Amino acid sequence: MGKIIAVHSYKGGTGKTLLSVNLAATFAKQGKKVCLFDLDFRAPSLFTVLKVEKADCWLNDYLNGTCGIEKVLIDLSNKAQNKGGLYIGLANPSTEAIRDMSSKDRKWEMRALGRILALRNSLLGDKSFDYLILDTSPGLQYSSINAIVSADIVLVATTFDRSDVNGTKLMLRELYDLFEKKTEIVLNKVFDAPLKTGKDMQTKLKDIYQAPILGIIPCFCDVLKAEGNIIFAQEKPEHPFSKLLDEMASRINTV
Amino acid sequence: MSNQEILGRKPVQILEKIKENLEKLNEKMEVMIELQKHGRNEMQPLPDAPLDVMTLLSMPDHLRKTAMTVCRLGRATAEEVSEQTHRARAVESAYLNQLVTMGHMQKERNGRKAYFYVERETKKEET
Fold this sequence. Notes:
The structure holds two protein chains of two kinds. Chain A is an alpha/beta fold. Chain A has helices at about 15-30, 45-50, 60-65, 95-100, 105-115, 120-125, 140-150, 160-175, 200-210, 220-225, 230-235, 240-255, and strands at about 5-10, 35-40, 75, 85-90, 130-135, 155-160, 180-190, 215-220. Chain A is globular. Chain B is mainly alpha-helical. Chain B has one domain (about 5-125): Arc Repressor Mutant, subunit A (Orthogonal Bundle). In chain B, a hairpin with a 2-residue loop joins strand 2 (about 105-110) and strand 3 (about 115).
């Protein structure tokens, strides 16, 4: 059976969506059948990044129990030049939907957890997806923790910002460890980071976070300049950023 | 009909009944042992206790592990939970019953087997 990956962070702006989209595209390029879900209901962004603005059903509807998951899935396999399959599920970006999702009670969140847990059977089992990637909102939001509880692996996107380092360390101890989750750190926007990280740096980072480091992504001007308009893993496969994603995806395949 | 006659006619049924009662007694004793081990406070039944992620976070580690396993399996016996957690079946049985008492889980008997699950959909909302 496939794996569920939750992409999470302590702070916003660490590159979760960039990482999620490019990782999904990388897996699809490698021939995997991938599904990418936007679980950031307070600030949906996947629809903009992937330039898909309409959906028959949103993930909000699935979690509300008003439609099945197959109606949420949007097939982007043809759009992407890949060997596998790439499907997405979007969060409703309307103000009304965001307001509605912000006012859910504990019972609704409990049912939402059940529906996210059920994706293992419906998507990884029945529909044979290799990976389900859940792009979450930062911090301790209900939807994010639901995703973490349902995931096999949690990718923690972080930067060297001091408050982010401290917050990430706290979450490692008081969130991911409590749920006994396999976590992998992805350090993003690292200034002057070498493309090939030496063992010394890996050891130093492992000491800081007490968790495995999946990858260190330097601060690429090209990526910043693209302003979210380019999916590097698809459109610029030879770019160093795409190459780093290839390495990370290969490592996840072996986890 | 004398007791001896009854014993002569239905020894297997009687032994099965004794075994069943002993199992029930054993389950209750396991819960009592767990009560003493972890204190009574965490076993107070709650009138409205949805098993959401914040509740899971605030649970003691030993109960969270059991609750998480049931969440993952959907519906499970103590034996099935113990296979996942690598803890003794009797221990899992006690933890599961504790979660039922706390109002976080439901228990359903099917013959000799007791199944534990989280009731997520209320009947009222389904209709």
